[in-house]
Design a protein that fits this description.
Elements: E1 4-9, H1 15-23, E2 27-32, H2 35-44, E3 49-56, E4 60-61, H3 63-68, E5 75-83, E6 87-90, E7 101-105, H4 106-110, H5 113-119, E8 122-126, H6 129-138, E9 144-148, H7 150-156, E10 159-162, E11 172-179, E12 193-201, H8 207-217, E13 222-228, E14 238-244, H9 250-261, E15 263-273, H10 277-280
Parallel strand pairs: 1-2, 1-3, 7-8, 7-9
Antiparallel strand pairs: 3-4, 3-11, 5-11, 6-9, 6-10, 12-14, 12-15, 13-14
């Protein structure tokens, strides 16, 4: 019996769907065409959780998500790292030597370009990796293959000819687990934690330098700092940051106090357990 619903962006069989199935097997995965719609489903309560990709070890950050996060009204309650594996799949019975064209999302093709080049295939881009598999299933073609996650082959009845064809084995996507709860249950104190927050510095000379000084003097490790453009202005004064620890830790508490003194806006987006993948990477 399902414990609830978890929203993701993309089609059934996408990498985000695989992440939902792997980490929240008791939740019903619910696909959405856009990140805006996935966020809205969480906010309205149609879905209790969201599995949202924020960065990839090859492609970098997911820009749409980072612009939605600060004003989403959602909270981060977890992070999950998922190795990205791509499969070359075809309609049942098709042999590799019959295939002349491969279709997938542009970024997936680029991450499998060595295999595509070795096989001498013509690449055609579509909007979604799982969508490439669905389209191939709906319109069978013995000369075509799709580059998609393994789950897509299972869902759409395709056969995998070549497994794990990505160029780089370190290809990994980091997902954030989101909720609409305004005060989610804090993680256990036995778990190493990450604190994510946004802030806008005051209009003062060297404001960012002063705002961040407390993290260095209090020995707090800042693992991410990214700037945003607001309202078309070319001055970057709005930032998203992640640090090791939780706000109750004395060092981080002092650092955040100093940050807020030099900021006109400050909001914690989430305090959540660090994925064990961090220690293995």
């Amino acid at each position: 019996m399902s414990q609830g619903r978890i929203a993701f962006q993309g089609e059934l069989g996408a990498n985000s769907h695989e992440a939902c199935a792997a980490y929240f097997p008791d939740y019903e995965p619910v696909p959405h065409p856009t990140f805006d719609e996935a966020f809205e489903a969480i906010k309205t309560g149609d879905c209790q959780l969201g599995m949202i990709p924020v960065e990839n070890s090859i492609a970098g950050r997911v820009a749409d998500v980072h612009h939605l996060l600060p004003n989403s009204g959602l909270k981060i309650i977890g992070e999950k790292f998922k190795p990205i594996r791509f499969q070359l799949m075809v309609n049942p019975g098709v042999k590799l030597e019959e295939v002349t064209t491969v279709q997938s999302m542009a970024i997936a093709i680029s991450q499998c370009r060595k295999t595509v080049k070795r096989l001498g295939l013509k690449a055609e881009t579509v909007g979604d990796t799982a969508g490439a598999a669905r389209m191939l299933a709906q319109t069978p073609d013995r000369t075509r293959a799709a580059i998609s996650p393994a789950l897509a082959a299972e869902i759409y009845g395709l056969e995998i000819l070549l497994r794990d064809i990505e160029d780089e084995r370190h290809n990994t996507t980091r997902f954030l687990v989101m909720t609409a709860q305004s005060e989610p249950e804090p993680p256990p104190f036995t778990s190493p934690c990450i604190t994510s927050f946004v802030f806008r510095v005051r209009n003062l000379p060297a404001a960012l330098y002063k705002a961040l000084g407390g993290f260095a003097t209090n020995g707090v490790n800042m693992t991410k700092l990214e700037s945003y453009m607001e309202d078309g202005a070319w001055t970057a004064t709005f930032f998203y940051a992640e640090v090791d620890g939780r706000p109750e830790d004395r060092g981080l508490a002092l650092a955040l106090e100093e940050l807020q003194f030099f900021s006109e806006r400050f909001e914690i987006l989430g305090v959540y357990p660090a994925d064990p993948f961090r220690a293995r990477a």
